[in-house]
Amino acid sequence: MYVAVKGGEAAILATHDLIAEERRGDVSVPELSVAQIREQMQLSVARVMNEGSLYDEDLGALALKQTQGDLIEAAFLMRAYRTTLPRFGSSVPVDTASMAIRRRISATYKDLPGGQVLGPTYDYTHRLFDFALMANGEHSPEAKIAEHALDAAMPRVPDILGDEGLMEAEVPPVGDPRPFDLTRDPVEFPADRDVRLQTLSRGDEGFLLGLAYSVQRGFGGNHPFAGEIRLGEVAVSFAPEELGFAIELGDITLTECQMVNQFKGSIDQPPQFTRGYGIAFGHAERKAMSMAIIDRSLKARDFGEASEYPAQQEEFVLYHCDNVEASGFVEHLKLPHYVDFQGELELLRKIRREQEERLAERKEAAE
């Protein structure tokens, strides 16, 4: 344990008081409530829930408030709290095909069966400041939202292609074993797809975005199609052993993305489209899209493709996408390393002395 900080425990406790003061800011400004953060910063809350591996909007908002909006520190809080919760078992797989849709788009079909639903998105907004938001009081939208009944049938694009035999089939592993649990067991390589997807689902959004970008630009040359992106509410069910049947626990908001990728085929497989899959808590399209692109890259071994670029290297991707672990490893450099540094400092001085002595000897010999 490091004890070199002067003041010891008293100094550390004083930093806690300073954090609380900094967090509160100017007391003449009304304090943000957890409810305000939950309702008005939903995209940040979603990111914290994803990277913190825990779906709880109130706790996600509290974590953001407590950490002054530091997303990685907030995710760390969520994970730490998650370890204290009892575990009752695994839920029944959610059925995203029956999602209560709020947003659903596809870049592959103009006349998508079931229709395109633009929903809430910044895709079509002007990147201009809305200074009306700085005014006190509520900001009313310029136009009322029209209510339209959605089609009951909204088949997923990969399913449409699958009906024609043009999409890679996706079947459970032999025996349909219980999925890997990343929160209980360490990742081992080579990693199966359930391990990869779990790791990506709580990976750092920025890191995954960068890797997804690298796949499209210079390291892979892959330009997938956004087969379908959907946002909405899905029922979560759990089957207690004592009951023997599933009961519905409630609804959660999910974003799902299915990318459609080209595949030229092989000796064993005909030419077909392949899929990349991404899913995330809340409204998190960028995360789900990045995850789907990388998921397909990490399937290179499954298709007998060469692993030539970073996003295809599963050890590189899975070991480094965890921002809590990465942050801890980088930030540990702030802790005292006095002994290590003094050792290197003395070694460097010794090497310089020896070098100066050799130069002096050569100079004398030359004279």
Description of the molecule:
There is one protein chain. This protein is α+β, with helices and mostly antiparallel strands. The chain has two domains: 75 residues, no CATH class; 205 residues, no CATH class. Helices cover 39% and strands 13% of the residues. It is built from twelve helices and four strands; from the N terminus they run H-H-H-H-H-E-H-H-H-E-E-E-H-H-H-H. The chain has a four-stranded antiparallel beta sheet with strand order 1-2-3-4. Helix 3 packs across helix 5 and helix 4 packs across helix 5. The longest helix is centred in the last third of the chain and has 29 residues. It is globular and about 90 Å long. The model has no long low-confidence stretch (mean pLDDT 89).
Mean pLDDT: 89
Largest sheet: 4 strands, antiparallel
| Number of individual domains | 2
Order of helices and strands: HHHHHEHHHEEEHHHH
Shape label:
globular
Low-pLDDT stretches are none
Query: Largest sheet, order of strands side by side?
Result: 1-2-3-4
Count of DSSP helices?
12
Subunit organisation of the chains? single chain
Fraction of residues in β-strands: 5-15%
Provide a concise account of the structure shown:
The protein is built from 12 helices and 4 strands; from the N terminus they run αααααβαααβββαααα.
